[in-house]
Design brief:
The chain is mainly α and 94 residues long. Helix content is 64%, strand content 0%.
Amino acid sequence: MVVRLLMAFLVLLGSGLGVAAQPIHAPQQPLRVTTDDDAYCQVLLTRVSAAPAAADGQAAQLAEEGRQLCLAGHPRTGIAKLRRALRVAMAQAQ
């Protein structure tokens, strides 16, 4: 009896109960694989320094804090600060 109920449930589940599955769309840009290391700190520092509004203000302060954290052996925290600096710089540029 339990087996029949389980099979019936699986058949209903497999039919989707009339709900069509939605296709997953691929992102426009390919995903970037990153690591939490000094090389990625340098990549982010380069990106932040190339941003138009990164020369002064909050973005520059965050970038410097991120750089110092990376140099002190805290790449994860430094990368978080550098990403935030990049977001601030991009927002200021708009």
